[in-house]
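Here is one chain, start to finish.
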Amino acid sequence: MNRELLTTPTVDIAMIRCGGFEDGPALQVGWRVRRRTRPTSRLAGSKTDPPKKRWIPDQVRDDRTREARKSGLPLAGSKTDPPYEDERWFGKIHEDLTMAEEKNYDIVIVGGGPGGLTAGLYGARAMRKTIVLEKGMPGGQIANTEEVEDYPGFEHISGFELATKMSNHAQKFGLEMVTEDVEEVYVDGTDRVARCSSGMLYRAKAIILSTGGSPVLLGVPGESEYTGKGVSYCAICDGAFFRNQVIAVVGGGDAAVEEAGFLTKFGSKVYVIHRRNELRAAKIVQKRAFANEKLEFIWDTIVESINGSDKQVTNLSLKNVKTGEKSTLEVGACFPFLGFVPNSNITREALRKDQGGYIITDHKMETSIKGVFACGDVRSQLVRQITNAVGDGTTAAVAAEKYIEEMEDHG
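Its structure:
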């Protein structure tokens, strides 16, 4: 290769042909540069510019190759490389573009809900370099909750305000928070690694999973618009807001029927809307439900839309799946209970889970993968509330700190 002055690129991105190690012959990078750009002090291929032998994860290489092809520009060294009068190609391996960028921490927390923020607070207070990776807003699902009345010390507070207070509190102790979408967590020797969609790798001595889960949605008009304004997925959290109102529950499984029974403590009437003519709930659960005078069942029916005013749900548009008959049901709230999906399929190595896909941990919140902990809604447990997520996060952070201490003591 000719010794030529390196230049600082002004346009385009690297285009990669996949290979193994960065200095291997199968990996070629085309770095397009302009002649008039400012030269740096190093010479390409000189002894002052040695290649660094680091492995590029297959996924990162594949993603970058796809991006190069999508751009419509040729891969470096291909027969379709055209000559350019004012540009030239040369095969310099550019470290920033060919290697997945990495950052190192003591504790990486995946998910910024109440459990994750609490874990972050305790990790930072223990003087450990700690970061929370959250793809959305701090607080997770509670950030979208209109009102919280069951968190000790706050008789009434919005979910967004509570999340903000938690986030600010943790950051005062030195917690870092970054917006990242974590695609995979895996073990690499003594490191636990979080790989993000951005290509960034976060290496840590311990990782805490606070990834939560997502309710199965109805997917009808008005559902997202009225979430927090009469549409809720948690009876324990929000049932008390609808005292003496008519409430609708959608679903026919154990969760739907049990939550409907709980809601009769508050609602003047609770309708259970089910698309079949019989429930899927356990027989003992059905027996209690049928004996409850405040419960009424609407069979063979689906919700077509959720309607309301600017501030609140007022009615549901229904359709009988057998007759096609349409009707309107006046309600003040709608609770869909079609299921809850934990975000637990994030680790490369197999995690021990229960039948619902929730992660099983020990009393220290440690999973079946050493050095990987879990807290909050993603964990297998009886209830999923802010309070127990916070407790989980505390335990997970303290346990992670002790795990790291043991690692350090043993060299």
